[in-house]
Amino acid sequence: MPIEPTKSIWMNGELIPWEEAQIHVLTHTLHYGTGIFEGIRAYETSEGPAIFRLAEHMDRLINSAKILDIPMPYTSEELQEAAKEVVRDSGLASCYVRPIAYYGYGEMGLATTDCEVDVAIACWPWGAYLGEDAATKGVRMKISSWVRHDHNIMPPASKTTGNYANSTLAKMEALRAGYDEAIMLNKEGLVAECSGENLFVCRNGKIMTPPLVSGALEGITQHTVMSFVKDLGHEVTFEALARSDLYTADEIFVVGTAAEVSAVNSVDDRPVPCPGPITQQVASLYADTVRGKNPNYSHWCEVV
């Protein structure tokens, strides 16, 4: 989906016109992939635009910086205020928010010792990543031939720009084969996550999601959904999952800021019941919560 420009982008402490937010072709991170980023959504609520779980997203950005040893020039609190400023300035009722921190222009070579860190936050309108009807009709999934990063190769706990070359390969392989999304296994052959979402499997009365040690990103939407599942009276656990667990699942759904809550209707052409009852309940709770309609979680909606 093409990006729809908005009025301004926050860059290194100030709002500048959208078209002026540019970088040099010799920007360090463009060459070496050593940036970090977040994906956040703001939703229309009765009190105006509200950014969902803003603090948690910016805290994760700071943690990504720690993992990659990037000296961040701003605190989480400063970035939260900057994100609200960007959304307010855009005039949008709802939007996608993209913070990014990267090594800028001025030094070249693998060492980052003398590189300056630039930080930017943009927002723009962006619909559901896997389709507007993904929560009801579901999406077709393919086990990717590409393996998820090992913890001692590229740390999956950091939302690193360079990590997503791995995800892009998996995503494009799935799309070219006629599927909607890819599921990635780790080097042991266990389920890690999708190319851009965490995954939940319902099987034999259990609701499970792969643990971080399997190579999954610590998902904020994943945490949100786990809270919902517990509210519904169910137990949800972190479990190591094999591909056969997916083939024999009672229902599967994937979650993420971009994809929100999306049902899965098949894995490697093995049909999965869709949408399952847990998927429907979780999707409904999520849709209400992000729009400020769930008083139990109103504190997650940061009005701008």
Describe the protein's architecture and organization.
The protein has 304 residues and is of the alpha+beta class. The chain folds into two domains: 8-124, D-amino Acid Aminotransferase, Chain A, domain 1; 134-290, D-amino Acid Aminotransferase, subunit A, domain 2 (D-amino Acid Aminotransferase, Chain A, domain 2), CATH 3.20.10. Helix content is 27%, strand content 28%. The protein is built from eight helices and 17 strands. The protein has helices spanning 28-32, 54-68, 76-90, 134-137, 164-176, 220-231, 243-247, 277-290; strands spanning 8-11, 14-17, 36-37, 40-45, 48-52, 95-103, 117-124, 139-143, 181-185, 191-194, 198-203, 206-209, 236-238, 251-256, 260-267, 270-271, 301-303. Strands 8, 9, 10, 11, 12, 13, 14, 15 and 16 form a nine-stranded mixed beta sheet that branches. Helix 2 (54-68) crosses helix 3 (76-90). The radius of gyration is 19 Å and the shape is globular. The two termini are 26 Å apart. The model has no long low-confidence stretch (mean pLDDT 96).
